[in-house]
Amino acid sequence: MKTCSVIVPIYNTAPFLAQCLSSLARQSYSALQILLINDGSTDESKEIAEAFCKADKRFCLINQSNQGLSAARNTGLQHACGEYVLFTDSDDFLDTYTIERLIDAIGDADVVQYGYKRVLDDGRVVKTDIPSCPYQLTSACLRLYKRMLFDTYALTFTPGMIYEDIIFSLNLWAHHPTIHILPFTGYNYRINVHSITAHHSRKNIRTLYRAIRETQAPLWLKIYTRLRLLIHFLKS
């Protein structure tokens, strides 16, 4: 059975962390390396993560000073040893059969893209979304990757960038990986009004747009991404 490395950046998500990690421990696909990157949390997140590591040898805790989500994911990539890589945010959670279904679906493709449910704290689902094309959803968490992609193309996340998943996705797409779309909503995205990306400034948006221009993605894809961002900012 091939191993999947699951990378979970953690920063002050103690109220939600146990649900996230429990959903990983209960996965029907058992060959997992679960990397918990504690990015300088000041709440009880570290203690919760330590408890899971003691109970299940598949969990591994890595502590670092607070450097941000991108740096935490990059740390996880440095320690990942599985054939596959999956990212999960520490305030979200997976359905039980998510990883198994993704691995069954990837075949000869480089990436499997799948959908999500947007959920409230009480578990109510307020939205579901399944991608109709590979460029519709930019979240790094909504894909299973073959790890060789990160080694072959030196793919990393840009520290200090809001909406870092957009830049990462454009850099990924620039290499034209084969992407399979799975019509499955196995990722549960928690609505969190305190999320970093819930707040943005004009300076940060200008920085983001400049970074989009500097990627090697095709021009039409950069324009498409900027238009989608514009619509998102107008609605928020």
> How many distinct domains?
1
CATH architecture term: Alpha-Beta Complex
Class by SSE composition = alpha/beta
Low-confidence residue ranges: none
Can you identify the CATH class? Alpha Beta
Provide the residue-averaged pLDDT.
Answer: 93
Main sheet characteristics:
7 strands, mixed
Distance between the termini: 44 Å
CATH superfamily: Spore Coat Polysaccharide Biosynthesis Protein SpsA, Chain A
Number of strands: 11
Label the overall shape.
Answer: globular
What is the N-to-C succession of helices and strands? EHEHEHEEHEEEEHHEEHH
| Oligomer state of the chains in this structure | single chain
Percent in strands: 15-25%
Layout of secondary structure:
Layout (H helix, E strand, L loop, with lengths): L3 E7 L3 H12 L6 E8 L5 H11 L3 E6 L4 H11 L4 E4 L5 E2 L3 H9 L4 E3 L2 E4 L5 E5 L13 E4 L1 H6 L10 H10 L5 E3 L5 E4 L11 H13 L4 H17 L1
Parallel strand pairs: 1-2, 1-4, 2-3, 6-10, 7-11
Antiparallel strand pairs: 4-9, 5-11, 6-9, 7-8
Helix pairs in contact: 1-2
Explain this structure.
The mean pLDDT is 93. The relative contact order is 0.15. The protein has 8 helices and 11 strands. It is 38% helix and 21% strand. The chain has one domain: Spore Coat Polysaccharide Biosynthesis Protein SpsA, Chain A. By secondary structure, the chain is an alpha/beta fold. A 7-stranded mixed sheet has the order 3-2-1-4-9-6-10, with helices on both faces. Helix 1 runs parallel beside helix 2.
